[in-house]
Amino acid sequence: MRTLAADGVVDDPAPASAAVRRSTATPSWLALVAITVVVVAGVVLRFVQRSPLWLDEAQSVNIAALPLGDMFEALRHDGHPPFYYVLLHGWMEVFGESDFAVRALSGVFAVATLPLAWVAGRRLAGRAGARWALVIVALSPYSIRYATETRMYSLVMLLVLAGYLLLSDALIDPRPRRLAALTLISGLLLLSHYWSIYLLAATGLVLAARWWWRPQQRGKTGRAILAVAAGGLLFLPWLPGFLYQAANTGTPWGEPFRPTAIVLTTLEDLGGGVLTESNLAAILVALLVLVALFAARSSGSQLTLDLGTVPVVRRELAVVLVVFVLGSVAGYATDATYQSRYAAVVVPLLLLAVAVGITRIPGIAQLLAGGAYLALSVTGIAWVNHYQRTQAEVVGDAVAQHAEPGDVVVYCPDQLGPDYSRQMPDGVTELAYPTLSSPELVDWVDYAERNRAADPVRIAEDIRAEADGNAIFVVWMPDYRTLDDQCERLLGALGPATQLVRGDDAKYYEPAFLHWLPAAA
Question: Could you identify which of 30, 129, 363, 435 might form a hypothetical disulfide with 121, taking C-beta atoms 3.0 to 4.6 angstroms apart as the criterion?
Protein backbone atom coordinates (compact mmCIF):
# COMPACT_ATOMS: atom_id res chain seq x y z
CA MET A 1 0.00 0.00 0.00
CA ARG A 2 1.07 3.61 -0.53
CA THR A 3 2.97 5.01 2.41
CA LEU A 4 4.54 8.39 1.75
CA ALA A 5 5.45 10.10 -1.46
CA ALA A 6 7.74 12.74 -0.02
CA ASP A 7 8.97 14.38 3.16
CA GLY A 8 6.73 17.43 2.79
CA VAL A 9 3.84 17.90 5.15
CA VAL A 10 1.23 17.15 2.52
CA ASP A 11 3.17 14.43 0.75
CA ASP A 12 3.57 16.57 -2.36
CA PRO A 13 6.18 15.07 -4.72
CA ALA A 14 6.48 18.20 -6.80
CA PRO A 15 9.47 19.76 -4.99
CA ALA A 16 11.53 16.59 -5.37
CA SER A 17 10.54 16.02 -8.96
CA ALA A 18 10.79 19.59 -10.21
CA ALA A 19 14.57 19.38 -10.56
CA VAL A 20 14.31 16.34 -12.80
CA ARG A 21 13.63 16.64 -16.53
CA ARG A 22 10.27 15.01 -17.21
CA SER A 23 10.11 14.86 -20.96
CA THR A 24 12.09 14.55 -24.13
CA ALA A 25 11.67 16.03 -27.57
CA THR A 26 9.29 13.26 -28.64
CA PRO A 27 6.22 14.79 -30.37
CA SER A 28 3.15 14.56 -28.16
CA TRP A 29 1.06 12.87 -30.86
CA LEU A 30 3.70 10.19 -31.38
CA ALA A 31 3.93 9.56 -27.65
CA LEU A 32 0.14 9.24 -27.48
CA VAL A 33 0.08 6.73 -30.33
CA ALA A 34 2.89 4.69 -28.76
CA ILE A 35 1.21 4.66 -25.35
CA THR A 36 -2.12 3.67 -26.90
CA VAL A 37 -0.54 0.77 -28.80
CA VAL A 38 1.24 -0.45 -25.66
CA VAL A 39 -1.87 -0.23 -23.50
CA VAL A 40 -4.09 -1.99 -26.05
CA ALA A 41 -1.49 -4.74 -26.41
CA GLY A 42 -1.24 -5.04 -22.64
CA VAL A 43 -5.01 -5.34 -22.28
CA VAL A 44 -5.25 -8.02 -24.99
CA LEU A 45 -2.33 -9.99 -23.55
CA ARG A 46 -4.11 -10.10 -20.19
CA PHE A 47 -6.65 -12.46 -21.75
CA VAL A 48 -4.34 -14.60 -23.92
CA GLN A 49 -2.87 -17.85 -22.62
CA ARG A 50 -2.82 -21.15 -24.49
CA SER A 51 -1.66 -23.38 -21.64
CA PRO A 52 -4.24 -25.42 -19.70
CA LEU A 53 -4.72 -24.71 -16.00
CA TRP A 54 -1.90 -25.91 -13.77
CA LEU A 55 -2.21 -27.32 -10.23
CA ASP A 56 -2.95 -24.14 -8.29
CA GLU A 57 -5.41 -22.86 -10.87
CA ALA A 58 -7.30 -26.14 -11.14
CA GLN A 59 -7.39 -26.45 -7.35
CA SER A 60 -8.82 -22.92 -7.15
CA VAL A 61 -11.55 -23.74 -9.68
CA ASN A 62 -12.45 -27.00 -7.94
CA ILE A 63 -12.70 -25.27 -4.57
CA ALA A 64 -14.67 -22.32 -5.90
CA ALA A 65 -17.12 -24.68 -7.66
CA LEU A 66 -18.26 -26.09 -4.32
CA PRO A 67 -21.29 -24.78 -2.42
CA LEU A 68 -20.17 -21.91 -0.17
CA GLY A 69 -20.32 -23.94 3.05
CA ASP A 70 -18.23 -26.75 1.55
CA MET A 71 -15.90 -24.19 -0.05
CA PHE A 72 -14.91 -22.68 3.30
CA GLU A 73 -14.18 -26.14 4.70
CA ALA A 74 -12.13 -27.06 1.64
CA LEU A 75 -10.10 -23.86 2.04
CA ARG A 76 -9.14 -24.92 5.57
CA HIS A 77 -7.38 -27.87 3.91
CA ASP A 78 -5.82 -25.73 1.19
CA GLY A 79 -4.00 -22.87 2.92
CA HIS A 80 -5.52 -19.64 1.56
CA PRO A 81 -8.05 -17.04 2.75
CA PRO A 82 -11.50 -16.95 1.14
CA PHE A 83 -12.15 -13.58 -0.57
CA TYR A 84 -10.88 -14.46 -4.05
CA TYR A 85 -12.65 -17.83 -3.98
CA VAL A 86 -15.97 -16.19 -3.13
CA LEU A 87 -15.55 -13.85 -6.10
CA LEU A 88 -14.52 -16.74 -8.37
CA HIS A 89 -17.52 -18.78 -7.15
CA GLY A 90 -19.91 -16.05 -8.27
CA TRP A 91 -17.98 -15.43 -11.51
CA MET A 92 -18.18 -19.11 -12.51
CA GLU A 93 -21.91 -19.22 -11.88
CA VAL A 94 -22.27 -16.54 -14.55
CA PHE A 95 -19.47 -17.36 -17.02
CA GLY A 96 -18.77 -21.08 -16.53
CA GLU A 97 -15.64 -23.09 -15.80
CA SER A 98 -13.72 -23.10 -19.08
CA ASP A 99 -10.03 -22.19 -18.88
CA PHE A 100 -10.68 -18.85 -20.57
CA ALA A 101 -13.67 -18.01 -18.40
CA VAL A 102 -12.03 -18.67 -15.05
CA ARG A 103 -8.86 -16.81 -16.05
CA ALA A 104 -10.78 -13.81 -17.35
CA LEU A 105 -11.62 -12.71 -13.80
CA SER A 106 -7.92 -12.14 -13.13
CA GLY A 107 -7.66 -10.36 -16.47
CA VAL A 108 -10.41 -7.95 -15.44
CA PHE A 109 -8.60 -7.19 -12.18
CA ALA A 110 -5.36 -6.62 -14.09
CA VAL A 111 -6.96 -4.21 -16.55
CA ALA A 112 -8.47 -2.28 -13.63
CA THR A 113 -4.96 -1.66 -12.25
CA LEU A 114 -3.94 0.35 -15.33
CA PRO A 115 -5.79 3.61 -14.59
CA LEU A 116 -4.66 3.37 -10.96
CA ALA A 117 -1.06 3.03 -12.14
CA TRP A 118 -1.51 6.18 -14.24
CA VAL A 119 -2.80 8.16 -11.24
CA ALA A 120 -0.07 6.86 -8.93
CA GLY A 121 2.66 7.61 -11.46
CA ARG A 122 1.33 11.13 -11.96
CA ARG A 123 1.38 11.83 -8.24
CA LEU A 124 4.96 10.64 -7.97
CA ALA A 125 6.51 12.16 -11.09
CA GLY A 126 4.04 14.27 -13.01
CA ARG A 127 2.80 13.56 -16.53
CA ALA A 128 5.95 11.69 -17.50
CA GLY A 129 5.58 9.51 -14.42
CA ALA A 130 1.97 8.79 -15.35
CA ARG A 131 2.92 7.74 -18.89
CA TRP A 132 5.81 5.54 -17.82
CA ALA A 133 3.88 3.94 -14.97
CA LEU A 134 1.05 3.10 -17.36
CA VAL A 135 3.20 1.52 -20.07
CA ILE A 136 5.41 -0.34 -17.58
CA VAL A 137 2.45 -1.92 -15.81
CA ALA A 138 0.67 -2.56 -19.12
CA LEU A 139 3.63 -4.55 -20.50
CA SER A 140 4.84 -6.05 -17.23
CA PRO A 141 5.51 -9.79 -17.78
CA TYR A 142 4.71 -10.35 -14.11
CA SER A 143 1.36 -8.57 -14.35
CA ILE A 144 0.46 -10.37 -17.56
CA ARG A 145 1.47 -13.75 -16.13
CA TYR A 146 -0.89 -13.40 -13.19
CA ALA A 147 -3.59 -11.74 -15.26
CA THR A 148 -3.79 -15.06 -17.12
CA GLU A 149 -3.82 -17.23 -14.02
CA THR A 150 -6.84 -18.33 -12.02
CA ARG A 151 -5.39 -17.13 -8.74
CA MET A 152 -5.71 -14.12 -6.46
CA TYR A 153 -2.53 -12.28 -7.41
CA SER A 154 -4.06 -9.82 -9.89
CA LEU A 155 -6.72 -9.03 -7.31
CA VAL A 156 -4.01 -8.43 -4.71
CA MET A 157 -2.14 -6.00 -7.01
CA LEU A 158 -5.38 -4.11 -7.70
CA LEU A 159 -6.11 -3.80 -3.98
CA VAL A 160 -2.54 -2.70 -3.26
CA LEU A 161 -2.71 0.13 -5.80
CA ALA A 162 -6.14 1.19 -4.55
CA GLY A 163 -4.90 1.20 -0.97
CA TYR A 164 -1.74 3.04 -2.02
CA LEU A 165 -3.77 5.91 -3.42
CA LEU A 166 -6.26 5.94 -0.56
CA LEU A 167 -3.53 6.13 2.05
CA SER A 168 -1.81 9.03 0.33
CA ASP A 169 -5.14 10.89 0.27
CA ALA A 170 -5.87 10.03 3.91
CA LEU A 171 -2.51 11.41 5.01
CA ILE A 172 -3.40 14.74 3.40
CA ASP A 173 -7.09 14.88 4.37
CA PRO A 174 -8.29 12.00 6.59
CA ARG A 175 -11.98 12.20 5.79
CA PRO A 176 -14.12 9.48 7.41
CA ARG A 177 -15.05 7.93 4.06
CA ARG A 178 -11.40 7.71 3.03
CA LEU A 179 -10.46 6.09 6.31
CA ALA A 180 -13.37 3.65 6.03
CA ALA A 181 -12.32 2.75 2.47
CA LEU A 182 -8.74 2.27 3.68
CA THR A 183 -9.98 -0.09 6.40
CA LEU A 184 -12.00 -2.04 3.82
CA ILE A 185 -9.03 -2.37 1.46
CA SER A 186 -6.77 -3.52 4.30
CA GLY A 187 -9.27 -6.14 5.37
CA LEU A 188 -9.81 -7.42 1.83
CA LEU A 189 -6.05 -7.72 1.37
CA LEU A 190 -5.83 -9.87 4.50
CA LEU A 191 -8.69 -11.99 3.17
CA SER A 192 -6.97 -12.36 -0.23
CA HIS A 193 -3.41 -13.45 0.61
CA TYR A 194 -1.50 -13.98 3.84
CA TRP A 195 1.57 -12.06 2.67
CA SER A 196 -0.66 -9.02 3.09
CA ILE A 197 0.05 -9.43 6.80
CA TYR A 198 3.67 -8.45 6.12
CA LEU A 199 2.58 -5.62 3.84
CA LEU A 200 0.29 -4.08 6.44
CA ALA A 201 2.89 -4.59 9.17
CA ALA A 202 5.55 -2.88 7.04
CA THR A 203 3.16 -0.04 6.22
CA GLY A 204 2.39 0.34 9.91
CA LEU A 205 6.10 0.55 10.76
CA VAL A 206 6.74 3.22 8.14
CA LEU A 207 3.70 5.17 9.29
CA ALA A 208 4.91 4.89 12.89
CA ALA A 209 8.23 6.40 11.79
CA ARG A 210 6.31 9.24 10.14
CA TRP A 211 4.32 9.79 13.33
CA TRP A 212 7.56 10.02 15.30
CA TRP A 213 9.49 12.31 12.96
CA ARG A 214 6.60 14.62 12.04
CA PRO A 215 4.93 15.70 15.25
CA GLN A 216 2.87 18.33 13.41
CA GLN A 217 1.26 15.53 11.38
CA ARG A 218 0.62 13.06 14.20
CA GLY A 219 -3.13 13.47 14.13
CA LYS A 220 -3.45 12.58 10.45
CA THR A 221 -0.83 9.85 10.67
CA GLY A 222 -2.43 8.31 13.73
CA ARG A 223 -5.84 8.15 12.07
CA ALA A 224 -4.29 6.47 9.02
CA ILE A 225 -2.55 3.91 11.25
CA LEU A 226 -5.81 3.12 13.01
CA ALA A 227 -7.64 2.77 9.68
CA VAL A 228 -5.06 0.29 8.37
CA ALA A 229 -5.06 -1.67 11.63
CA ALA A 230 -8.87 -1.75 11.72
CA GLY A 231 -8.78 -3.88 8.58
CA GLY A 232 -7.88 -6.74 10.91
CA LEU A 233 -11.44 -6.65 12.23
CA LEU A 234 -12.69 -7.87 8.85
CA PHE A 235 -10.26 -10.78 9.13
CA LEU A 236 -11.59 -11.94 12.51
CA PRO A 237 -14.38 -14.20 11.12
CA TRP A 238 -11.72 -16.11 9.18
CA LEU A 239 -9.23 -16.24 12.08
CA PRO A 240 -10.18 -19.81 13.17
CA GLY A 241 -9.60 -21.01 9.61
CA PHE A 242 -6.25 -19.24 9.48
CA LEU A 243 -5.14 -20.75 12.79
CA TYR A 244 -6.16 -24.22 11.62
CA GLN A 245 -4.18 -23.77 8.39
CA ALA A 246 -1.16 -22.44 10.28
CA ALA A 247 -1.15 -25.52 12.48
CA ASN A 248 -1.88 -28.14 9.82
CA THR A 249 -1.11 -27.08 6.23
CA GLY A 250 1.85 -24.76 5.57
CA THR A 251 4.02 -25.24 2.47
CA PRO A 252 5.41 -28.79 2.68
CA TRP A 253 6.39 -28.60 -1.00
CA GLY A 254 9.17 -26.03 -0.47
CA GLU A 255 11.84 -24.65 1.86
CA PRO A 256 12.35 -21.19 3.42
CA PHE A 257 14.16 -18.44 1.44
CA ARG A 258 16.75 -15.93 2.62
CA PRO A 259 15.83 -12.26 2.00
CA THR A 260 18.47 -12.01 -0.74
CA ALA A 261 17.04 -15.08 -2.48
CA ILE A 262 13.56 -13.58 -2.24
CA VAL A 263 14.76 -10.36 -3.88
CA LEU A 264 16.63 -12.18 -6.66
CA THR A 265 13.75 -14.55 -7.44
CA THR A 266 11.29 -11.67 -7.52
CA LEU A 267 13.43 -9.53 -9.81
CA GLU A 268 13.89 -12.44 -12.23
CA ASP A 269 10.15 -13.08 -12.38
CA LEU A 270 9.48 -9.40 -12.97
CA GLY A 271 11.29 -10.05 -16.26
CA GLY A 272 9.24 -13.12 -17.13
CA GLY A 273 10.96 -16.13 -15.59
CA VAL A 274 13.96 -18.36 -16.01
CA LEU A 275 15.76 -17.06 -19.09
CA THR A 276 18.81 -14.90 -19.81
CA GLU A 277 16.75 -11.86 -20.73
CA SER A 278 14.99 -12.05 -17.36
CA ASN A 279 18.36 -11.77 -15.66
CA LEU A 280 19.09 -8.66 -17.72
CA ALA A 281 15.66 -7.29 -16.88
CA ALA A 282 16.35 -7.92 -13.18
CA ILE A 283 19.59 -5.92 -13.42
CA LEU A 284 17.83 -3.08 -15.23
CA VAL A 285 14.99 -3.01 -12.68
CA ALA A 286 17.52 -2.81 -9.86
CA LEU A 287 19.40 0.02 -11.58
CA LEU A 288 16.23 2.02 -12.29
CA VAL A 289 15.04 1.58 -8.72
CA LEU A 290 18.41 2.86 -7.48
CA VAL A 291 18.14 5.85 -9.83
CA ALA A 292 14.69 6.61 -8.42
CA LEU A 293 16.08 6.38 -4.91
CA PHE A 294 19.30 8.38 -5.31
CA ALA A 295 18.96 10.72 -8.33
CA ALA A 296 18.33 14.21 -6.97
CA ARG A 297 18.76 16.31 -10.10
CA SER A 298 19.41 15.98 -13.80
CA SER A 299 20.95 18.53 -16.13
CA GLY A 300 21.89 17.99 -19.73
CA SER A 301 23.59 14.62 -19.77
CA GLN A 302 24.33 14.51 -16.03
CA LEU A 303 22.63 13.01 -13.00
CA THR A 304 23.35 14.29 -9.51
CA LEU A 305 23.08 11.62 -6.82
CA ASP A 306 22.14 12.14 -3.19
CA LEU A 307 23.51 9.27 -1.12
CA GLY A 308 21.08 10.23 1.60
CA THR A 309 18.32 9.24 -0.91
CA VAL A 310 15.56 11.44 -2.28
CA PRO A 311 12.09 11.21 -0.79
CA VAL A 312 9.81 10.40 -3.72
CA VAL A 313 9.90 6.59 -3.43
CA ARG A 314 12.03 6.24 -0.29
CA ARG A 315 9.26 4.95 1.91
CA GLU A 316 7.67 2.84 -0.82
CA LEU A 317 10.94 0.97 -1.16
CA ALA A 318 11.30 0.79 2.61
CA VAL A 319 7.96 -1.02 2.69
CA VAL A 320 9.19 -3.44 0.00
CA LEU A 321 12.37 -4.19 1.95
CA VAL A 322 10.57 -4.69 5.26
CA VAL A 323 8.01 -7.01 3.61
CA PHE A 324 10.79 -9.22 2.23
CA VAL A 325 12.59 -9.31 5.59
CA LEU A 326 9.41 -10.12 7.52
CA GLY A 327 8.45 -12.79 4.98
CA SER A 328 11.86 -14.42 5.21
CA VAL A 329 11.97 -14.36 9.00
CA ALA A 330 8.46 -15.77 9.23
CA GLY A 331 9.37 -18.41 6.64
CA TYR A 332 12.25 -19.70 8.74
CA ALA A 333 10.16 -19.50 11.92
CA THR A 334 7.29 -21.53 10.42
CA ASP A 335 9.21 -23.61 7.83
CA ALA A 336 7.29 -21.85 5.03
CA THR A 337 8.66 -21.35 1.54
CA TYR A 338 8.49 -18.43 -0.88
CA GLN A 339 7.31 -18.09 -4.46
CA SER A 340 7.65 -14.91 -6.50
CA ARG A 341 3.88 -14.72 -6.90
CA TYR A 342 3.68 -13.80 -3.20
CA ALA A 343 5.46 -10.55 -4.13
CA ALA A 344 2.18 -9.36 -5.67
CA VAL A 345 1.78 -7.42 -2.42
CA VAL A 346 4.76 -5.19 -3.33
CA VAL A 347 5.23 -5.49 -7.11
CA PRO A 348 3.06 -2.41 -7.79
CA LEU A 349 5.42 -0.36 -5.61
CA LEU A 350 8.45 -1.73 -7.43
CA LEU A 351 6.97 -0.98 -10.84
CA LEU A 352 6.16 2.58 -9.78
CA ALA A 353 9.75 2.99 -8.60
CA VAL A 354 10.94 1.80 -12.01
CA ALA A 355 8.75 4.42 -13.67
CA VAL A 356 10.13 7.15 -11.42
CA GLY A 357 13.66 5.97 -12.16
CA ILE A 358 13.08 6.31 -15.90
CA THR A 359 11.70 9.83 -15.52
CA ARG A 360 14.85 10.90 -13.67
CA ILE A 361 17.07 10.07 -16.63
CA PRO A 362 17.59 13.15 -18.81
CA GLY A 363 17.14 13.62 -22.53
CA ILE A 364 17.21 10.88 -25.09
CA ALA A 365 18.70 8.51 -22.50
CA GLN A 366 15.27 8.39 -20.89
CA LEU A 367 13.80 6.90 -24.05
CA LEU A 368 16.70 4.50 -24.37
CA ALA A 369 16.31 3.28 -20.78
CA GLY A 370 12.54 2.96 -21.10
CA GLY A 371 12.84 1.32 -24.50
CA ALA A 372 15.36 -1.20 -23.18
CA TYR A 373 13.07 -2.06 -20.29
CA LEU A 374 10.06 -2.53 -22.58
CA ALA A 375 12.09 -4.60 -25.07
CA LEU A 376 13.12 -6.96 -22.27
CA SER A 377 9.51 -7.00 -21.10
CA VAL A 378 8.31 -8.10 -24.54
CA THR A 379 10.85 -10.94 -24.44
CA GLY A 380 9.58 -11.92 -21.02
CA ILE A 381 5.98 -11.89 -22.21
CA ALA A 382 6.94 -14.14 -25.13
CA TRP A 383 8.47 -16.56 -22.65
CA VAL A 384 5.40 -16.42 -20.39
CA ASN A 385 3.29 -17.58 -23.34
CA HIS A 386 5.84 -20.11 -24.63
CA TYR A 387 6.66 -21.81 -21.34
CA GLN A 388 3.56 -23.92 -20.78
CA ARG A 389 2.29 -24.29 -17.24
CA THR A 390 1.38 -27.96 -17.46
CA GLN A 391 1.89 -30.93 -19.77
CA ALA A 392 -1.63 -32.09 -18.97
CA GLU A 393 -3.03 -31.69 -22.48
CA VAL A 394 -0.30 -33.89 -23.99
CA VAL A 395 -0.78 -36.55 -21.34
CA GLY A 396 -4.58 -36.42 -21.64
CA ASP A 397 -4.40 -36.89 -25.41
CA ALA A 398 -2.11 -39.90 -24.98
CA VAL A 399 -4.47 -41.51 -22.47
CA ALA A 400 -7.43 -40.87 -24.77
CA GLN A 401 -5.67 -42.71 -27.61
CA HIS A 402 -5.25 -45.91 -25.56
CA ALA A 403 -7.93 -45.90 -22.85
CA GLU A 404 -11.04 -48.00 -22.67
CA PRO A 405 -13.99 -47.52 -20.28
CA GLY A 406 -13.08 -48.85 -16.85
CA ASP A 407 -9.34 -48.22 -17.16
CA VAL A 408 -7.60 -46.64 -14.17
CA VAL A 409 -5.52 -43.45 -14.15
CA VAL A 410 -3.25 -42.91 -11.15
CA TYR A 411 -1.64 -39.57 -10.31
CA CYS A 412 1.61 -39.76 -8.36
CA PRO A 413 1.83 -37.54 -6.47
CA ASP A 414 -1.67 -36.19 -5.89
CA GLN A 415 -0.35 -32.71 -6.79
CA LEU A 416 -0.68 -33.73 -10.46
CA GLY A 417 -4.34 -34.60 -9.99
CA PRO A 418 -6.27 -31.31 -10.16
CA ASP A 419 -4.92 -30.09 -13.51
CA TYR A 420 -4.19 -33.40 -15.26
CA SER A 421 -7.63 -34.78 -14.41
CA ARG A 422 -9.24 -31.88 -16.34
CA GLN A 423 -7.73 -33.29 -19.55
CA MET A 424 -8.69 -36.95 -19.09
CA PRO A 425 -11.26 -38.72 -21.27
CA ASP A 426 -14.60 -39.76 -19.83
CA GLY A 427 -15.11 -43.29 -18.56
CA VAL A 428 -11.82 -43.82 -16.72
CA THR A 429 -11.41 -44.25 -12.96
CA GLU A 430 -9.02 -41.66 -11.47
CA LEU A 431 -7.05 -42.14 -8.26
CA ALA A 432 -4.60 -39.82 -6.47
CA TYR A 433 -1.56 -41.25 -4.69
CA PRO A 434 -1.18 -41.98 -1.81
CA THR A 435 -4.80 -41.96 -0.56
CA LEU A 436 -6.34 -43.20 -3.84
CA SER A 437 -9.02 -40.54 -3.39
CA SER A 438 -10.50 -38.21 -6.00
CA PRO A 439 -7.80 -36.22 -7.81
CA GLU A 440 -9.71 -32.93 -7.91
CA LEU A 441 -8.36 -31.53 -4.63
CA VAL A 442 -5.04 -31.82 -2.82
CA ASP A 443 -5.48 -32.00 0.94
CA TRP A 444 -2.50 -30.17 2.47
CA VAL A 445 -3.39 -31.03 6.07
CA ASP A 446 -0.54 -33.10 7.57
CA TYR A 447 0.69 -33.62 4.01
CA ALA A 448 4.29 -34.55 4.77
CA GLU A 449 3.33 -36.99 7.52
CA ARG A 450 0.79 -38.70 5.28
CA ASN A 451 3.32 -39.15 2.50
CA ARG A 452 6.01 -40.49 4.80
CA ALA A 453 3.58 -43.12 6.09
CA ALA A 454 2.62 -44.34 2.60
CA ASP A 455 3.64 -47.81 1.41
CA PRO A 456 3.96 -47.85 -2.42
CA VAL A 457 3.93 -51.66 -2.62
CA ARG A 458 0.69 -51.99 -0.69
CA ILE A 459 -0.88 -49.12 -2.59
CA ALA A 460 0.08 -50.81 -5.89
CA GLU A 461 -1.89 -53.86 -4.79
CA ASP A 462 -4.92 -51.67 -4.07
CA ILE A 463 -4.61 -50.09 -7.52
CA ARG A 464 -4.48 -53.49 -9.27
CA ALA A 465 -7.54 -54.55 -7.30
CA GLU A 466 -9.39 -51.39 -8.37
CA ALA A 467 -8.40 -51.97 -12.01
CA ASP A 468 -9.63 -55.55 -11.91
CA GLY A 469 -7.82 -56.51 -15.09
CA ASN A 470 -8.29 -53.19 -16.90
CA ALA A 471 -5.42 -51.07 -18.10
CA ILE A 472 -3.59 -48.77 -15.67
CA PHE A 473 -2.13 -45.40 -16.61
CA VAL A 474 0.36 -43.80 -14.22
CA VAL A 475 0.82 -40.03 -14.48
CA TRP A 476 3.87 -39.30 -12.37
CA MET A 477 6.88 -37.12 -11.78
CA PRO A 478 9.90 -37.66 -9.51
CA ASP A 479 11.55 -35.25 -7.05
CA TYR A 480 8.47 -33.96 -5.31
CA ARG A 481 9.39 -32.94 -1.76
CA THR A 482 8.20 -35.28 1.05
CA LEU A 483 7.81 -38.21 -1.41
CA ASP A 484 11.43 -39.21 -2.10
CA ASP A 485 11.29 -42.10 -4.62
CA GLN A 486 7.78 -43.33 -3.83
CA CYS A 487 6.39 -42.77 -7.33
CA GLU A 488 9.24 -44.76 -8.88
CA ARG A 489 8.66 -47.55 -6.35
CA LEU A 490 4.92 -47.51 -7.08
CA LEU A 491 5.56 -47.86 -10.79
CA GLY A 492 7.99 -50.72 -10.18
CA ALA A 493 5.51 -52.50 -7.94
CA LEU A 494 2.75 -52.25 -10.55
CA GLY A 495 4.84 -54.16 -13.07
CA PRO A 496 6.31 -53.66 -16.57
CA ALA A 497 4.92 -50.54 -18.26
CA THR A 498 5.27 -48.70 -21.57
CA GLN A 499 6.24 -45.04 -21.49
CA LEU A 500 3.81 -43.02 -23.58
CA VAL A 501 4.91 -39.47 -22.60
CA ARG A 502 8.20 -38.19 -21.25
CA GLY A 503 8.12 -35.31 -18.80
CA ASP A 504 9.61 -32.21 -20.43
CA ASP A 505 10.66 -29.66 -17.81
CA ALA A 506 12.31 -27.49 -20.48
CA LYS A 507 8.91 -26.61 -21.92
CA TYR A 508 6.48 -27.19 -19.05
CA TYR A 509 6.38 -25.73 -15.55
CA GLU A 510 4.53 -28.81 -14.31
CA PRO A 511 5.59 -31.74 -16.52
CA ALA A 512 4.74 -35.40 -16.06
CA PHE A 513 5.61 -38.85 -17.37
CA LEU A 514 2.88 -41.19 -18.54
CA HIS A 515 3.32 -44.97 -18.26
CA TRP A 516 0.79 -47.52 -19.48
CA LEU A 517 0.15 -51.01 -18.18
CA PRO A 518 -2.18 -52.62 -20.76
CA ALA A 519 -5.21 -54.61 -19.71
CA ALA A 520 -4.68 -58.23 -18.78
CA ALA A 521 -5.17 -60.62 -21.71
Answer: 129
